[in-house]
């Protein structure tokens, strides 16, 4: 373990940006954690091994076991819950993590580790939009670096009523489309947040392909915000 501590810097999820901003990090990799999750004994070793094997790798995430407050296992893993299936896994492996992240939040922060030299890119965390810290970090790093995943659980992700983020039932298409949270203001906030990321990324020399993806998403969100409210949503307002 002492050898790992020289390379890996551990940081809790709560107030992540405040913990990291202005701090001098002399470690190679930043590993996010939740205070109430239980790590497998080989988590840090597995993270260290993949970063050493892939010098070009910028961020890695893993699967997780879902457990209740007493650590009783659920019948599905995190990847099962979020439908991170073979098709999505192939997108990530082929360098298209940004495509996927622009459609849905790809990574749970507690399963994530990234190169410490990217701290200046991801901080400060944008707080004016639907993306929280993990989505923001993945969005920025996916635009400039390589992302990979470890296809096995490296921690037990605890579910309880008081935690900040929970894995719940996956919404149906009808749930999503009739939600009062899907409105023009939400689309505008998301577009503004991605535009904020785009402006920060400009200094990193975006490829034409990544720049196009970000611009298209921003335009799409503004166009969606201008659409009339569907009839089946009007009664909810």
Which architecture of the domain at 2-161 does the CATH hierarchy give at level 2?
Alpha-Beta Complex
Secondary-structure element order, N to C:
HEHEEHEEHHHEHHEHHHH
Beginning-to-end CA distance, first to last residue: 55 Å
Mean pLDDT equals: 83
Structural class: alpha/beta
Molecular structure report:
There is one protein chain. Helix content is 41%, strand content 19%. With 237 residues, it is α/β, with parallel strands linked by helices. It has a domain at 2-161: Spore Coat Polysaccharide Biosynthesis Protein SpsA, Chain A (Alpha-Beta Complex). The longest helix has 18 residues, at 184-201. Residues 1-6 and 169-178 have low confidence and may be disordered.
List the helices and strands and how they pair.
Blueprint (H helix, E strand, L loop, with lengths): L1 H4 L2 E5 L3 H5 L8 E5 L4 E2 L3 H11 L3 E11 L5 E5 H4 L4 H8 L3 H5 L10 E4 L3 H4 L10 H12 L1 E13 L14 H5 L6 H18 L6 H18 L5 H4 L3
Parallel strand pairs: 1-2, 4-7
Antiparallel strand pairs: 2-6, 3-7, 4-5, 4-6
Helix pairs in contact: 8-10, 10-11
């Amino acid at each position: 373990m002492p050898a790992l501590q020289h390379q890996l810097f551990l940081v809790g999820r709560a107030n992540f940006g405040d913990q990291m901003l202005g701090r001098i990090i002399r470690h190679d990799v930043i590993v996010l954690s939740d205070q109430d999750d239980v790590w497998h004994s080989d988590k840090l070793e597995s993270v260290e091994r993949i970063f050493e094997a892939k010098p070009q790798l910028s961020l890695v995430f893993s699967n997780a076991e879902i457990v209740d407050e007493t650590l009783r296992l659920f019948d599905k893993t995190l990847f099962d819950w979020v439908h991170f299936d073979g098709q999505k896994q192939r997108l990530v492996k082929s360098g298209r993590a940004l495509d996927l992240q622009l459609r849905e939040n790809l990574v749970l922060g507690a399963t994530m580790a990234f190169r410490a030299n990217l701290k200046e890119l991801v901080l400060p965390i944008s707080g004016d939009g639907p993306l929280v810290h993990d989505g923001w970090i993945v969005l920025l790093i996916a635009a400039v670096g390589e992302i990979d995943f470890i296809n096995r659980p490296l921690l037990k992700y605890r579910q309880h009523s008081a935690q900040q983020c929970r894995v719940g039932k996956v919404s149906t298409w009808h749930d999503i489309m009739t939600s009062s949270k899907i409105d023009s203001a939400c689309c505008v906030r998301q577009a503004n947040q991605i535009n904020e990321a785009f402006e920060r990324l400009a200094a990193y020399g975006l490829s034409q392909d990544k720049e196009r993806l970000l611009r298209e998403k921003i335009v799409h969100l503004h166009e969606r915000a201008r659409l009339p409210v569907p009839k089946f949503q009007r009664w909810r307002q």
